[in-house]
Design brief:
By secondary structure, the protein is an all-alpha fold. Helices cover 73% and strands 2% of the residues.
Length: 525
């Protein structure tokens, strides 16, 4: 084992852990008797600085593409979609920490920021993991942090209830995941993803392989709140402190979808660098195609169920937090369509000779998925930021709490308008381009009737989502206010929310900026 290589590859994670320890030392040692607001500001800024240092390390690694191998088995990698996902995790973590400055739900701010940074470390590990054991360690580090963050509002019964439900469902999902991992290990004798891929491609996919994949999808379906593994999400989004709910809705989703991309690109795609003869590659492609035909049915079914349940259930909500939870379930369905699509792949399998070792048909869909999760995460953090300000001023997150918001705080109402219309996919906001790119990747140049039907269904449900987003905006702009007392927020909070809204508009007007940045991390074809 080369510890120097390990340190270089895990430099972003190391930066976050050092920042977490520094936050604890400063808050518990130097600022123990300081005012709460001063402690919050110092802890949040130290956490943001740690995220900035880790982001610098990610960008430094990303263009070069490092990897760490132990006994010739790849454990961690950087570059490509891994670097994009890790950068997104760090930026969104920093934004959630800035939203903490206006929070008053806990006096243990040092511990809170440290747990956030440690959970983000788990997300970074997940995004770069190439081994089942590393994946599970990263998932547990992230999950345990999220359970703690959900319960951090000790004076709130809803927070405690949400944390218990989240923890119980999380334990079951971890059991499913470990059970599936054990099958993969039994089939291949290795925990390394590439070796598992190689063994399965040579021996052919077996019923046990399909069972293992189903169990893994069930475990990861919980992480992304996909139906039927979504039952924890509404209570958690409603009961968790607003910054923690924003973190759960954004950062954990990016990490989980990055992991789904890793697994699907390895076990559902015809690509891969196995350094074999043309005959072996063609044989591998044939087996991968058979595998895709069977396993490719799982994700579209889950995606369709998520779109259906998420959008229809959101129509009946009177709590904006729960509305955002069911909206997140629907958005998970859209993203799963992109992961299941593999872009140009299924429609071009008329001849195996059309493939070569340098052709990666999944790049288009993976880039579209990354574009979607990054922009969705950014918009969701802003939405929870607005909800937290209104909730702190009115004592509730119900729809009627937003009555007359444009009179009580015009800037906050404008931010809410931009973010909710973006979530609904209205042009020229970035949410429109996220859906456009994703649906284009699902269709591909030669898609069959099933992808067309799925995209048509997704577009129809996007129209449904516009209705419940407009219910909130209707109260903010159209219906009269019961109380016209001005709603005030901390200047840092308002600056973050306005910045997020400006980014949503700017990236919508110039979508190639983010798309080009994502593409810069992919190797030239």
């Amino acid at each position: 084992m080369n510890y120097a290589d390990l340190f270089r590859v895990t430099l972003p994670e190391t930066a976050l852990e050092v920042a977490a320890l520094l936050v604890l030392v400063v808050d518990l040692g130097l600022l123990r008797k300081a005012a709460l607001r001063a402690r919050v500001i110092v802890a949040a800024l130290l956490g943001v600085a740690g995220c900035g240092a880790a982001l610098w390390a990610v960008l430094l690694q990303g263009q070069g593409g490092l990897s760490f191998e132990d006994s010739h088995e790849l454990l961690l990698t950087t570059g490509g979609y891994t670097a994009v996902a890790q950068a997104g995790i760090l930026v969104l973590t920093a934004l959630t920490l800035l939203l903490l400055i206006d929070g008053d739900f806990t006096r243990h701010v040092g511990e809170y920021v440290a747990v956030v940074l440690m959970a983000a470390t788990g997300g970074l590990l997940i995004a770069g993991a190439q081994d089942l054991l590393v994946i599970f360690v990263g998932l547990e580090l992230l999950s345990l942090g999220l359970y703690i963050l959900t319960a951090f509002a000790k004076s709130s019964g809803k927070s405690a209830e949400a944390a218990i439900k989240y923890y119980l469902f999380g334990g079951m999902s971890a059991a499913f995941l470990l059970f599936g991992f054990s099958y993969f290990y039994g089939l291949s004798g290795s925990t390394n993803l590439s070796k598992i891929q190689l063994v399965i491609s040579l021996s052919g996919p077996s019923p046990l392989f399909y069972m293992a994949w189903i169990l893994v999808v069930a475990g990861l379906g919980f992480k992304v709140a996909a139906v039927p593994f979504h039952l924890w999400a509404p209570d958690t989004y409603e009961g968790a402190p607003a910054p923690a709910a924003a973190f759960i809705a954004s950062v954990s989703k990016i990490a989980s979808f990055a992991l789904l991309l890793t697994l699907s690109l390895i076990w559902l795609s015809p690509g891969g660098d196995l350094s074999r003869s043309t005959e072996s590659i063609n044989f591998y492609l044939f087996l991968s195609y058979l595998s895709w035909q069977k396993l490719g049915l799982i994700l579209p079914v889950i995606a369709t169920a998520s779109m259906l349940v998420g959008n229809l259930a959101a129509l009946a909500q009177v709590s904006v937090r729960r509305l955002l939870a069911y909206s997140a379930i629907a958005h998970a369905g859209y993203i799963l369509l992109g992961i299941a699509a593999h872009s140009d792949y299924p429609g071009q399998l008329s001849t195996l000779d059309s493939f070569s070792s340098s052709f990666d048909p999944t790049i288009t869909s993976s880039q579209a998925v990354l574009y979607y999760v990054l922009t969705y995460g950014l918009t969701t953090i802003g939405a929870f930021g607005v909800v937290s300000v209104v909730e702190r001023a009115t004592g509730s997150d119900r729809l009627d709490s937003f009555l007359g918001l444009h009179k009580r705080n015009p800037v906050l109402a404008a931010v809410l308008l931009v973010l909710f219309l973006s979530l609904a996919g209205i042009p020229p906001l970035v949410g429109f381009w996220a859906k456009f790119n994703l649906f284009a990747a699902v269709l591909g140049p030669s898609a069959g009737p099933i992808p067309f039907a799925l995209v048509a269904l997704a577009v129809a449900f996007s129209a449904v989502s516009l209705y419940y987003y407009l219910q909130v905006l209707k109260r903010a702009y159209v219906m009269p206010a019961i109380d016209e007392t001005p709603i005030k927020a901390h200047p840092v909070t308002m600056a973050v929310l306005v910045g997020i809204a400006a980014a949503v508009v700017g990236l919508g007007c110039f979508p190639a900026l983010l798309q080009g940045w994502i593409e810069s991390f992919y190797p030239a074809m």
